[in-house]
Amino acid sequence: MATLPGGIYDSGSQNSPEVEELARFAIDEHNKKSKPNIQLDLFYGMVQNATLELVGVVKVKEQVVSGKIYYLTLEAKESNGEKKLYEAKIWVKPWMDFKELQEFKELDDSLAA
Questions:
Q1: Residue 78: helix, strand or coil by DSSP?
Q2: How far apart are the C-alpha atoms of 62 and 37, rounded to whole Å?
Q3: Per-residue model confidence as pLDDT tens digits over 34-86
Q4: Which SS3 state, helix, strand or coil, does residue 76 take?
Q5: Domains recognised in the chain with CATH numbers
Q6: Which residues form a coiled coil (predicted)?
Q7: SS (H, E, C) the chain
Q8: pLDDT for res 97
């Protein structure tokens, strides 16, 4: 089945080494952005944006643009051991050695099913 340029489609490649590497990249980038907030959160008695550890990739969608945008649904474990689902949007241009985490958000439980 041919895919339309610009269309988002299910990839089905959640077990590929490339997707695993992108998932780790997304978690690492999220953790880097979260660290400046941790001390302030601890001061106010709330730990948000805690460091995450990748558990696995649940779903992969791709969009062909100038490069590819990957939409990864990830299962990650927070520092307290709680597992949650997140969505990461990663833009990749391999010929430019370019990779950017554009969005990272926790999925609502009702959307996770």
A1: coil
A2: 31
A3: 765 555 555 554 445 568 999 999 999 999 998 999 999 999 999 889 999 99
A4: strand
A5: 11-107 (3.10.450.10)
A6: none
A7: CCCCCCCEEECCCCCCHHHHHHHHHHHHHHHHHHHHHHHHHHHCCCCCCCCCEEEEEEEEEEEEECEEEEEEEEEEECCCCCEEEEEEEEEEEHHHCEEEEEEEEECCHHHHC
A8: 94
Could you give the CA distance from residue 1 to residue 54 in angstroms, rounded to a whole number?
Answer: 32
- Is 62 buried (19+), middle (13-18) or exposed (0-12) by CB count in 10 A? buried
Q: Give the residue from 98, 95, 22, 6 showing the smallest Cα distance to 59.
A: 22
**3-state class of 74 per DSSP?**
strand
Structure tokens at 15: 């077990």
Amino acid in the structure at residue 10: D
Hey, what's the torsion of the CAs at 81, 86, 92, 94, to 10 degrees? 40
Instruction: Give the separation between CA 50 and CA 38, rounded to whole angstroms.
Output: 7
